[in-house]
Structure formats: C-alpha cells, structure tokens
Amino acid sequence: MASRYAKITLTLALAAFAALVAFNNITDYGSNFAFVKHVLSMDTLFPDNAALYRSITTPWLWHAAYWLIIAGETLTAVLLARGALALWQARQATAGEFNQAKKYAIVGLTLGFVVWFFGFMVIGGEWFLMWQSHQWNGQEAAFKFYMAILGVLIFLNQSDTDRG
C-alpha cells in the first residue's frame, strides 16, 4: 500500500506544480511573456549568429506560442489531478484495477514531459538557441521539471501487485 500512496502523492504533487506554473503564467502574464518574446525573437544570442533566420518577431505569434505553453501546462495539471483522483479511488482495488487507473496520470506525465522537454529543450533550447542567452535561458529550470516528471512516470509505470 505504501507504493500506491506514494504514486498518488507524487502524481498529485506534480498536478499542483503544473497548476501553479500555469497560474503564474496567467497572473504574471507580462513578465513571463517577455521570456517567450525574447526566446522567439532570438535577440540576446551570440552576435552574428547564422541561425537568426529562425527568429519570430511577430507579436501575435509570441502570444500564440505563450498561450500554447499555458494550455499545455494547464492540461497537464488537469490530467494529473484526474489521474491522482483515479489512483485514489482505486487504492484498495486489485492490482489490475489499480494499474488501469494509471492511464490519466500517464497521459498527464507524458504531456508534461512534452511541454518541458520538447517545448523548452528541443524547440526553445535548440531551435531558438535559448542556451546562448544568459538572460533568457530556461533550460536549467526545464531540466529539473522534466526529470521530476520522468522519475514519477517511471515509478508510476512499475506494475503494482495485489495487496498482501
């Protein structure tokens, strides 16, 4: 039972994290929007960068990208909260039923990984070369986020057995 409670708790903790990140991005829209604007504009990269053709300098595209991020964070939070609830409801169930209850949490964790790894490391970090910016580099924070998500995803996917 300790393993089941741990899986529920970790899933719920990540749901709270994703919800707070989305909440902060909405309630402090301007300062967090500036991050997206500068990353997409590629305006703080190494001088004479040959990849500046990738930059996006259209304001509505900055807003669209930012709202896509917020939507991903919000959906991650909702799926993880729904997953934690499903796990809680199945905590006394058979191993098969508990394993089936993991589906929302697995989808939420996968989406969270996509947001923070693919969105921030692949797209932001490599396509828009965020790693070159000293001021607008979110890779270290994103790394912490997606590694926590990945750790919980691995733990959650461990098959549960019937209570003994």
From TrEMBL:
<feature type="transmembrane region" description="Helical">
    <location>
        <begin position="106"/>
        <end position="129"/>
    </location>
</feature>
<keyword id="KW-0472">Membrane</keyword>
<feature type="transmembrane region" description="Helical">
    <location>
        <begin position="141"/>
        <end position="157"/>
    </location>
</feature>
<dbReference type="Pfam" id="PF09933">
    <property type="entry name" value="DUF2165"/>
</dbReference>
<dbReference type="InterPro" id="IPR018681">
    <property type="entry name" value="DUF2165_transmembrane"/>
</dbReference>
<keyword id="KW-0812">Transmembrane</keyword>
<keyword id="KW-1133">Transmembrane helix</keyword>
<protein>
    <submittedName>
        <fullName>DUF2165 family protein</fullName>
    </submittedName>
</protein>
<feature type="transmembrane region" description="Helical">
    <location>
        <begin position="65"/>
        <end position="85"/>
    </location>
</feature>
